[in-house]
Write a structure and sequence with these properties.
It is a single chain. With 455 residues, this protein is of the alpha/beta class. The protein has 14 helices and 18 strands. β2 (40-52) and β3 (55-61) form a beta hairpin. Keywords: ATP-binding, Kinase, Nucleotide-binding, Transferase.
């Protein structure tokens, strides 16, 4: 018997940009990001580049008639909810796209001028042509270099970034997002922070993220503008679409893809993959808990209770970790979890694991155990480095876990498998075991349990 099709309705976004044979930027990045953000991506290719992670080796511009044919084909058939532009290359192409402006809803203009490798992607005479296109935009998203070309302002302060946004709005854009990845602030020492400034008619919003030490930013501008367009197509308001896009890019840069011989690429589908890993992560935590109940790990359960925590592959916050709600406690017959496994159920072990991931992102699972001389002796037989921290810790609970992780990795030669906290005022001595996968965490914990001489 033939099966019935079960069609799904999905919002449509359109990208008008160049092709990147290396897959990290341009049309390829746009379509990956749109799909990851829940929109059906369509395209009109303006140019074909011979490009990889090391740079642009060649460019072939398509005739404007071919670009128009692609635009007509998409717009005549699809109910396009949002459009983003990328590499347009020449004044003629910019003018061609602008001529379609009244058919391009929620138009996000990413004024691509120079590739991350430094290769120029826009003819100098095309810069002036951008004014009319920006005038038709819902949002324009220049980085610092592009902002300087478009406005003559070289932004070095938040106030100057706002001034850029206001000048772009004066050209007719509904809003401007001035990106801070290339801004080196002259008014303070915030070299560890990226600030993006969104200027609308009514408000000025700033978005802040820690700066990531990486050169793998190829495709970052394409990914951001595509994510914003996808969310606009899905019906999000401008502020929400920008906030979601900025958050996605922050994670995409934090977990770049190690591809090619150059610096690599941002991770376009990182949010989707992280969400997809939630259920498997919770299942792995549940399996570890079941093993602990079966083997009775009560000799390792501290006074405050034990918790097993698992982080999704790209977790950045405690609410992206699965743990036992109410912890694991001792009973007359062994141990039992108080309730089930859910995300956001752990506090201090989750904060510790997230802090450790800043030093070793492969560490995804952790458990806290009591510690005394017998446990410390059993730890010495583990298959990895054990680090002990004696110092006085700060007062705030979250800061304690971050401080503990920092001290442990500072003292470790590599990535420790166990961190012993000898405790302090109001703080129970504890050992936290770490592992890249759930099975390894269970084996390490049970090895310590078996190493104890229990009467």
């Amino acid at each position: 018997m033939k099966r019935r099709a079960a069609p799904e309705s999905r919002p449509v976004a359109l990208t008008v940009a160049g092709s990147d044979s290396g897959g990290g930027a341009g049309i390829q990045a746009d379509l990956k990001t749109m799909e990851a953000c829940g929109a059906f991506g369509t395209s009109a290719i303006t140019s074909v580049t011979a490009q990889n992670t090391r740079g642009v080796e060649g460019t072939h511009l398509l005739p404007t008639a071919e670009i128009e044919a692609q635009l007509d084909a998409v717009l005549d058939d699809f109910d396009v909810g949002a459009v983003k532009t990328g590499m347009l290359a020449t004044a003629e192409v910019v003018e061609t796209v602008e001529s379609y402006a009244d058919r391009l809803p929620n138009l996000v203009v990413d004024p691509v001028m120079v590739a991350a490798s430094g290769d120029r992607l826009l003819e100098p005479e095309a810069e002036a042509a951008y004014e009319d296109l920006i005038g038709a935009a819902t949002l324009v998203t220049p980085n610092a270099d592009e902002a300087t070309v478009l406005t003559g302002i070289e932004p070095e302060t938040e106030a100057e970034m706002q001034a850029v946004g206001e000048q772009l709005r004066d050209l007719g854009a509904t809003a401007a997002l001035v990106k801070g990845g290339h801004v080196e602030f002259a008014d303070d020492d915030r070299t560890d922070e990226v600030v993006d400034v969104l200027v609308t008619e009514e408000t000025v919003e700033t978005f802040r993220h820690p700066r990531v030490e990486t050169d793998a930013t190829h495709g970052s501008g394409c990914t951001l503008s595509s994510a914003i367009a996808a969310h606009l197509a899905r019906g999000a308001d401008l502020s929400a679409a920008v906030a979601t896009g900025v958050d996605l890019l922050a994670r995409a840069v934090r977990y770049p893809l190690d591809v090619g011989e150059g610096p690599g690429s941002v991770h376009h589908t990182v949010e989707r993959r992280n969400r997809a890993a939630r259920e498997p992560t919770a299942e792995r935590v549940t399996e570890v808990v079941e093993r602990f109940v079966d083997r009775d790990v009560s000799p390792l359960v501290p006074e405050v209770g034990m918790n097993v925590v698992g982080a999704t592959p790209y977790a950045e916050r405690p609410d992206e970790t699965a743990a036992v709600e109410g912890r694991i406690t001792r009973t007359l017959s062994g141990v039992r979890p108080n309730r089930g496994v859910r995300f956001g159920a752990s506090s201090h072990v989750a904060h510790f694991l997230i802090a450790c991931r800043e030093f070793d992102a492969a560490r995804r699972f952790a458990v806290n155990c009591r510690v005394d001389d017998d446990v410390a002796a059993a730890l010495s037989d583990l298959d990895g480095e054990v680090v002990t921290v004696h110092d006085a810790a700060p007062d705030a609970p979250e800061s304690i876990q971050r401080w503990l992780a920092e001290r442990a990795f500072e003292r470790a030669e590599g990535s420790p498998v166990a961190v012993v906290d000898r405790g302090g005022v109001g703080r129970e001595p504890m050992v936290k075991l770490l592992a890249d996968d759930a099975a390894a965490l269970a084996e390490r914990t049970l090895a310590v349990r078996d190493g104890l001489e229990v009467e």
